[in-house]
Amino acid sequence: MLKRKPKQSLDGLAADLQQVNLAKEASLMDLLTQSASLSSQLYLVFDVAKDANFWSNWHVLAHQYPEQWQYLYHDTPMSYLNDLSPLVIQVIEGGFGDALLQSALQNDTPDWGFLCISPLALTPLLEHWQAWMSVYLPGNSETLLRFYEPKILKLMLCHPSFDNEDSAKLLGPCLAIYLQQVSSAEFVQQMINQTLIENVMTQTQQYVSLDNLLPSAPWFHMDPEQVEAINHLFYQTRLTELAVELYKLAPEKCQALSHGATIISLDRGIQLAAKVAPKGSVRAKEQFSLLRFLIGSEFYQHPKFMASMSFLPLQHALKRFYDTQAYHQQVREQYHTHSWMIVDADAMQMDTVQAPLIQQGYV
């Protein structure tokens, strides 16, 4: 359960909130000052996986201040991966979080995580963020969510597919959330929890009731539009990873291919897969695209593949077709266009004119 502050602290917080406005842009010192004036704490949620040498550099200092931080994965089924776990850290001037932030602000890419202001102690705030470690996708499959990734967090707070109720769930017991500005040591406010502030200011009972902010099963279910918006953020990166995978699978076929042309055709293949099998999984659509390189550009027009698609999911139909070597020769002779990558480039150029690059439902 969340720890609750006594009435005296709340009265002071309510009075301070009437006098202090949370700045939309602020320095680290500004945020420390604001959080203190609001009888709250400044917290850092830091993604250690972005730095392969994180613990070799920060182990000593972190363990000098063990009361100031905790692994996000602490006491969860993911705790065996604590060395890769993001950290939830109370930022205290001169402490571990302060030193870590000062170092992170020197980097050109502000992708280390985010800051939040909350009246809660470390342990109950940790419980709130642990509730967001996983969400449910359409179809009720559970997946891990990197909510601490700045691009994902900003999308979840600002994208129209996430309504005010969704944002309120994400903010939970936080008064405000801040992200670092690009190429700057300043922070920009992404969202302010006006509802919580008003509730605290008008609170008359002995303890703050935060029960409505706690997760309840079933927890957050993402709409297809929300999943698509998040996938869109990393789509280009995923195409590059697929190109590397393709080069490893068939280096002899890929040596003469340019990286740019390969990316375009991989993208085109995923779009075609979405038309052939709209309900296919992300990985199945990727495999469909790879098979255009490995077997032939129009393999999906082969009657045997089309027949398999009538009763098998896309992933199983692909495997069945690929495992039958006789089909490979037939595809090369009858269902392959030698200039197919040029055709793909022309098609993609037309699509770019007509609509944004990602419209294929890459979920």
Q: Would you write up a description of this structure?
A:
It is built from 17 helices and nine strands. With 363 residues, the protein is of the alpha+beta class. Strands 1-9-8-5-2-4-3 form a seven-stranded antiparallel β-sheet, sandwiched between helices. It has a two-stranded antiparallel ribbon with strand order 6-7. Helix 6 (150-158) runs antiparallel to helix 9 (224-233), helix 12 (259-276) crosses helix 17 and helix 13 (282-294) runs parallel beside helix 15. It is elongated and about 75 Å long. Residues 1-20, 200-217 and 352-363 have low confidence and may be disordered.
List the helices and strands and how they pair.
Elements (H helix, E strand, L loop, with lengths): L6 H13 L5 E2 L1 H10 L3 E6 L7 H9 L6 E3 L15 E4 L5 H9 L8 E6 L3 H9 L3 E3 L5 E3 L5 H9 L5 H8 L4 E5 L6 E6 L1 H8 L22 H10 L1 H15 L1 H4 L4 H18 L5 H13 L8 H7 L4 H9 L2 H10 L5 H15 L9
Antiparallel strand pairs: 1-9, 2-4, 2-5, 3-4, 5-8, 6-7, 8-9
